[in-house]
Amino acid sequence: MQLRAFGATGIDLPVIGLGTWKVFDLPDGEEHVARDVVEAAFAGGCRIVDSSPMYGRAEAVLGRALGGRRDEAFVATKIWTDSSAEARTQLGAQLGFYEGRIELEQIHNLVAWQEHLPWLESEREAGRIRLIGATHYRAAAFDELERVMRTGRIQAIQIPYNPLERECERRILPLAEELGIGVVVMRPLGGEGALMPGPDPRDLGPLGGMTWAQALLAWALADARVHVLIPATSRPEHARENAAAGELPPLEEAERELVARMAEASS
Ligand SMILES: NC(=O)c1ccc[n+]([C@@H]2O[C@H](COP(=O)([O-])OP(=O)(O)OC[C@H]3O[C@@H](n4cnc5c(N)ncnc54)[C@H](OP(=O)(O)O)[C@@H]3O)[C@@H](O)[C@H]2O)c1
Q1: Does any ligand 1 atom lie closer than 6 A to the CB of residue 230?
Q2: Protein residue with its CA nearest to atom 27 in ligand 1
Q3: C-beta 131 within 6 A of ligand 1
Q4: Could you tell me the CA-to-CA distances from 75 to 17, 230, 252, 254, 264 in Å, in that order?
Q5: For the segment 195-204, what is each residue's pLDDT rounded down to a tens digit?
Q6: Lowest mean pLDDT among 53-57, 163-167, 263-267
Q7: Which residue, 82, 230, 238, 263, could crosslink 112 as a Cys pair with Cβ 3.0–4.6 Å?
Q8: pTM for the complete prediction?
């Protein structure tokens, strides 16, 4: 699995991680699904896992699924509330799930970011959080995201990026590069797999040998301003396939354009 420097943080991360939205919100009897997915993803070299208090039971399920792999993992999760009391409750629960530390604590959907930032900075000083980030899933919020980035107080952002959601190319990715901010990509398969199943593998022509999911992941990784993708899956075989995309040689520009055209045609 290729590694990339995560902005100016001094941390190198494997380029493929694992999202948990919907897929890890599992009842007790089905937690084995998350364990199997984590096992397959980590066997393929994934290290960054992403969750949120918004995702139901996913944070707790992820913590249990990591089991003895906690030290290998780079845990990214989020604070999602406009209440400072609830924010503290959310962090307290996360410290329980993830052995007392969070590598990347993100302000989910920019909710109450002005209020949360000073507190998150004090948690970072205390060593419970390593990096602070901010996320949003809609391009309409990118002006505000840009303001947060320009404060110089966050080290990472999480944004959507796939052939049908390219708004971040205009201002967010250039700014992240300029400021040395780490970039995590949500929805690399279009969000809930919206770009799947895509074209017939036999029609992938010059992309030969790749699956369509791998072609989409390679499309995003071809942009060097992006550092980590976090496709979500409930299936170990998909986790293996996605991790293997982190071993592929970079797409040529013509191949990248072909993937974009195919994505548009199949959407
Ligand atoms: N969507 C958002 O608005 C949002 C917002 C904030 C953060 N995030 C974070 O970003 C992560 C990723 O975004 P996302 O979950 O919305 O979308 P995504 O990763 O683009 O798509 C996930 C879907 O793709 C399918 N899939 C995964 N690998 C596949 C493969 N190799 N072949 C075929 N299908 C495959 C999964 O189904 P199977 O289970 O069948 O594999 C799942 O339904 C989230 O889980 C979350 O951690 C998302």
Answers
A1: yes
A2: 233
A3: no
A4: 10, 12, 32, 35, 33
A5: 998 888 778 8
A6: 263-267
A7: 82
A8: 0.96
